[in-house]
Amino acid sequence: MTLSHYHIQKDELSSVGYLHHPSYFEICEKVREESLSRFGSSFDELKDLDIALVVSKIEANYLKPLTGGPIQIKTSLLEQTSISFSLMHEFFKDDALAFRATLHFVGIRYSTGKATPLPPGVLKYLYQIGSAK
Question: Which stretch of DSSP H or E encloses residue 28?
Answer without folding.
Answer: helix 21-39
